[in-house]
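Box 3.1 A note on notation
Throughout this textbook, protein chains are presented in two layers. The first layer is the amino acid sequence; the second is a token string describing backbone geometry. Keep the layers aligned when reading.
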Amino acid sequence: MFGRKKDAALAENPTAPAADDARPKVTGKGAPTPKRSAQVAARKRPLVPNDRKAARETNRLARREEQLRMRRALENGDERHLPFRDKGPARRYVRDYVDARWNVAEFLMFAALVFVFLSFIPNLTLQGYIMLTFWVIIVAVVMDCLLLRRKLKVRLTEKFGEPGRGDLWYGISRAMQIRRLRLPKPQVGRGEFPA
């Protein structure tokens, strides 16, 4: 009950050793407690470095080195230094698959440029045909992107179990870029689909 004392518990069961007897007795902690002012002084660090110009230069050089490493990784496909959005085996597979196929979307920018120049022609009948052709190209791009999404989903499910979040959109957005301007640079040629 609430009023019992330890002595009463020991009197009822004298054969059980007390829990305190099993551990060796330690007196003190072996060192004096440091003063509060010493503890505060040990934790104190400057919010602003003493030499701000040198610290700024050091940070700038570190940032530049990191950017160079990332740029080299984007050029040669080194996984260790790629940006977070490009890392992982699934993203590498998506990149290789998109780079291996011919995509209608990568030619959309050229078609838009031609459309802008041809729209200055004053013939209304010709402009109607040009506009119709441009809409046909846009529909072809949409259909090609939907087909790419479906194929990527099947391939990623076979290889990795389930497409990761954003993997399919990553492939579509890469397909819309001009091949020469894609980053990370394509590591496979046309027709060299990944296994």
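The chain has a mean pLDDT of 87. The first helix runs from residue 6 to 12.
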